[in-house]
Amino acid sequence: MKKKVLVVSLACIIVAAVSLTKGMGAGSVVQKSTAAATYQSQCAKCHGEDGKGIESLPGIPNFADASWQAQHTDKELSDAISGGKGIMPPYKDKLSAAEITALVKHIRSFAAKSKKK
To answer: How far is CA 60 from CA 3, 5, 17, 26, 66, in A?
Structure first.
């Protein structure tokens, strides 16, 4: 009897661990799509849907430029999003720290996309 309880308990733990691991993967997919949606609603109007920036706005960076990406740290991007920079307003009161981090990762993806083309 004790052996059955142990086996059942162990099976439950394994199922729970597998479920949590799968959930983490799904969470990162959700986080990516949320970051993309946030970018589209909050950033694309100035930075462009492709991250290359709107030409009529001076000083807007080209996120698809690998050399620009290499010159800026994640912290610099996070600080600019949080505190604002130039004509860009701060988003610290509109986005959580996790949303800003996800947005930085999304911005980083523009350089990878431009390399593939």
So the answer is: 66, 63, 45, 33, 15
